[in-house]
Design goal:
Layout (H helix, E strand, L loop, with lengths): L1 E4 L15 E5 H6 L1 H8 L5 E5 L10 H11 L3 E3 L7 H20 L4 E5 L5 H13 L5 E5 H5 L3 H5 L3 H6 L5 H7 L2 H16 L3 H6 L3 E5 L21 E6 L1 H7 L26 H19 L1
Parallel strand pairs: 1-8, 2-3, 3-4, 4-5, 5-6, 6-7, 7-8
Helix pairs in contact: 4-5, 12-13
C-alpha cells in the first residue's frame, strides 16, 4: 500500500516525498498549463488521472481519455456522482460501454468510485463494480461513507470500536468533534466489516482510499497489514499541504480536531514557513503510515 501526496501547483515536488504513486487532477490539468506540463514530463511512477467529481468539476469522458494520453497516465477514474449510486452506475457503464474496447483496454487501468445515499445503495454499487471485469480498482472516498453509514457508525460503542482495533477510543472522542471522529473511523469500519477480501482477490480487484478527512486515519491501517494488504493499493491525500496553508501542524496523538479548510488552494505557493510545516506534516503522515 502506497501513500500519494497532493500538493499545490508551485510545490508539486512534495508529491514525490511519499511514494511513486500520484493522483493527478483532470480539471487542474485543463485550467493550469504548468500543472499539466509538470505531470506530462514526469516519466516515473504510477499516475492516476482523477475525474474531478469530488471538486464538482467532473471532466467530460473524452477530456479524461485525451488528458490520460497527454500525461501518460496509467489509470483513469471513471465518472461518478456524489452519493448517487444510480447515476454513478449509469455514468460508469456509459463510459466503459463506449470507450473500453476502443480507448481503454490495454492502455489504462480503471478505477470506479462506489457511491450511495444509503448503506444498501452504497453496497449495491460497490458489488456491481466488484463483478465488472473491466474495472481494476474500486475507489472508497472518506466523504462517500459518512452519510450512508452514519446511523450505523453513531450506534457503535467504544467497546465495538476497540474490537475493530481502535485504541484509546475515549481519548479520540474527547480530542475530536463527533463529525471528525466518525469521518476518521468510517473507512476502517467499512474495511473490517463490509469487505470480503476473498471476493476481491477472486475478482482481481484492489481498493484505493480517496482522500483523508483526518490523516490520523493512517494509523488504523496497521490492523490490515496482513494477507489483505495487497488488496488495498493506496491512499491519496492533500491533507499535509491543506493543513500547512492554514498554519496547522498535525498532532501526533490525534491528527486534527477538525478539517482545517474545505479544499486545498492549488494556486497558492506555500511561503517558506508554511512549506516547512507541510514537510513536517508529511513526515508525521509517513510515520503513521509505516507504524
Amino acid at each position: 500500500m502506497k501513500l500519494a501526496t497532493i500538493a499545490p501547483v508551485y510545490d508539486l515536488d512534495l508529491c514525490k516525498s511519499t511514494s511513486d504513486l500520484y493522483l493527478i487532477l483532470s480539471w487542474l490539468c485543463k485550467e493550469n498549463k504548468q500543472y499539466k506540463h509538470y505531470w506530462t514530463n514526469t516519466h516515473t511512477g504510477y499516475k492516476i488521472l482523477d475525474n474531478g467529481a469530488n471538486e464538482g468539476k467532473l471532466s467530460d469522458d473524452l477530456d479524461i481519455l485525451n488528458l490520460a494520453d497527454d500525461i501518460y497516465a496509467d489509470e483513469i477514474v471513471a465518472p461518478d456522482a456524489y452519493l448517487d449510486a444510480e447515476a454513478t452506475l449509469s455514468k460508469t457503464e456509459t463510459f466503459l460501454g463506449k470507450y473500453y474496447e476502443s480507448r481503454i483496454k490495454g492502455n489504462f487501468k480503471v478505477m470506479a468510485v462506489a457511491q450511495g445515499k444509503s448503506q444498501q445503495q452504497f453496497m449495491d454499487c460497490y458489488n456491481e463494480f466488484l463483478l465488472d471485469p473491466r474495472i481494476d480498482v474500486i475507489g472508497i472516498g472518506y466523504r462517500n461513507l459518512y452519510e450512508p453509514f452514519e446511523y450505523t457508525l453513531k450506534d457503535l460503542t467504544d467497546e465495538t470500536w476497540t474490537t475493530l482495533g481502535i485504541e484509546n477510543v475515549e481519548y479520540l472522542r474527547e480530542e475530536m468533534d463527533e463529525k471528525t471522529f466518525l469521518y476518521t473511523l468510517s473507512r476502517i469500519h467499512f474495511l473490517k466489516t463490509q469487505v470480503d477480501y476473498t471476493k476481491l482477490k477472486d475478482n482481481n480487484k484492489q481498493l484505493h482510499m480517496l482522500g483523508l478527512y483526518n490523516p490520523f486515519e493512517l494509523t488504523f491501517f496497521k490492523g490490515l497489514r496482513d494477507y489483505k494488504i495487497d488488496c488495498i493499493r493506496g491512499v491519496d491525500s492533500a491533507a499535509a499541504c491543506q493543513a500547512a496553508q492554514a498554519s496547522v501542524k498535525f498532532d501526533k496523538t490525534f491528527g486534527v480536531k477538525d478539517k482545517p479548510q474545505a479544499f486545498l488552494d492549488f494556486e497558492q505557493k506555500l511561503p517558506i514557513t508554511n512549506r516547512l510545516l507541510a514537510t513536517q506534516n508529511i513526515e508525521i503522515m509517513k510515520e503513521w503510515f509505516n507504524e
